[in-house]
Amino acid sequence: MKKSIKSIIVLVSISLVISLALAVTNYVTAPIIEKNESEAANKNLLVVLPDGGKFEKMDTSAYTLPSAVSEVYKASNGGYVFRLLTTGYQPGFSIMCGISSDGKVVGSTVISSAETPNIGGVAADKVAVAIVGKNTSDIDGVDTVAGATKTTSAYRAAIKDALNAAIILGGGSVDLRTEEEILNDNLSAVLPTAEGKFTKLFIAEVIEGIDAIYTADNGAGTVCVIGEQFVATDANGDVIGEVDEALAAKVSEQTKKVLATTMEDITLGDYEGLPSALVSAKVTESGNYVLELKAAGFGINGDQWYKPSGEYIHIKVSMTKDGKIIDCLTVSQAESDGIGSACADKDFYSQFIGKTQDNYSDIDSISGATLTTNGYKTAILRAFESVAIFEGGKGE
Q: pLDDT category, 30, cuts 50, 70, 90?
């Protein structure tokens, strides 16, 4: 018993000694670490804004700044240095950026990053060079680095936040809403009874002069987008609000046409030669087709070294009986995040709208995602072939 008590006392004593030693070490080293971090930060300030002079950390609590901005330093030459925190291919992507007094990027550097060194790291270096001299009007034009879409986009967006923050701190105003928020606000403005919740309609009928139709999730009505104009209708397709008479008639006619669309399932087993990529098919009363297909992108054909998902890209396409695409949508995908996953972006799949079999491949490919792009285009070709078979012809 006495031996056990003695052992416990020894262990407790050792623990106390170690704890005391750690506390003393921390007491001694903490100021040194803080000083080194401060010196590194000051060094980075001069790296991104060499002619900044003296820097003073700002209290920005009175301002509403873009989300990526975590710290701001005001330079004696009128410029600013921003510390930015964003998520690229991985979280924790920290960048420091210098903005001149006339609102242009002077320089930038990565403070910390978990991006892949030979992909995202290289891309960050290239973007850092490309953005020098850019302002808010041309920063979006900086090219995406092939194979590093997510890193490039995150870097570019963070720098844009810094440019916008400089405008705000200088007394200007900036619309910080995302494109999705702006769209939703415009939709809600003309149809407030929708309570801010809309879904873009997948179109299976040919409509003239209307870019898109959004329907209220609560059934309150729809909103047609025509260029920068938004026109609302009630649940029956009748126009709401003060709208030019001719435009109101066109919107009402086209909306009612879309809302009245009916479809019947096509039994695939009744046709020979249909491609295996075709999952399902429907035909509208007007004779158009709505097809669902699976595309073998990187998820199916990718190098096993990079661990492809094993999943197909699922696509929905509507097409006239003479082979012209009315609408296109990526329903689901499991391509490489930040690379092939761009096939789910509207900017990509909407390129196929209006295409025929003669020109469907004339689209902008996804940078660094050849297998995804080619697999998608092959599935679109299979859609043309399927419609040709349904119409009594032969797919090529």
A: low
Strand order across the 93-99 sheet: 55-57, 69-75, 80-86, 93-99, 105-112
Look at residues 362, 283, 305, 372 and name the one whose alpha carbon lies nearest to residue 336: 372
- Which residue, 125, 92, 120, is CA-closest to 108? 125
Instruction: Specify the length of the chain in residues.
Output: 396
Task: Read off the DSSP letter of residue 82.
Answer: E
Give me the chain's average pLDDT, please: 89
Residue ending a domain, choose from 169, 187, 220: 169
Taking only the tens place, the pLDDT of each residue in 315-370 is 999 999 999 999 999 999 999 887 899 999 999 999 999 999 999 999 999 888 99
For 195, the domain range is 179-259
267 with 164, same domain: the answer is no
Distance CA 137, CA 89 (A): 26
Same-domain check for residues 297 and 352 = yes
Give the range with max mean pLDDT: 120-129, 371-380, 385-394.
371-380
Report which of 94, 64, 96 is spatially closest to residue 167, judged by C-alpha positions.
64
Q: Is residue 230 part of a domain?
A: yes
Q: Which two tokens stand for residue 172?
A: 């200007």
What own/partner pairs with CB < 8 Å and gap ≥ 24 does 107-113 have? 107/47, 107/48, 107/49, 107/50, 107/132, 108/48, 108/159, 109/44, 109/47, 109/48, 111/44, 111/83, 113/88
Instruction: Give the strands of the sheet with 239-240, arranged side by side.
Output: 198-200, 212-216, 221-226, 229-234, 239-240
Among 334, 335, 387, which Cα is nearest to 366's? 335
HSE-CB at 278 with a 13 A cutoff on CA atoms is 26
Same domain for 247 and 267, yes or no, is no
Q: Identify whether residues 254 and 348 lie together within a single domain.
A: no
- Write out the two tokens for 286: 């007007």
User: Within a domain: residue 7?
Assistant: no
Residue with tokens 């309150």: 220
Structural domains counted in the chain: 3
Q: Which of 259, 276, 294 is the last residue of a domain?
A: 259
CATH number of the domain enclosing 92: 3.90.1010
Domain annotation covers residue 22: no
Q: Are residues 116 and 211 in the same domain?
A: no
Q: How far is CA 17 from CA 21, 23, 157, 317, in A?
A: 6, 10, 50, 72
110 has pLDDT over 80: yes
Is residue 15 situated within a structural domain?
no
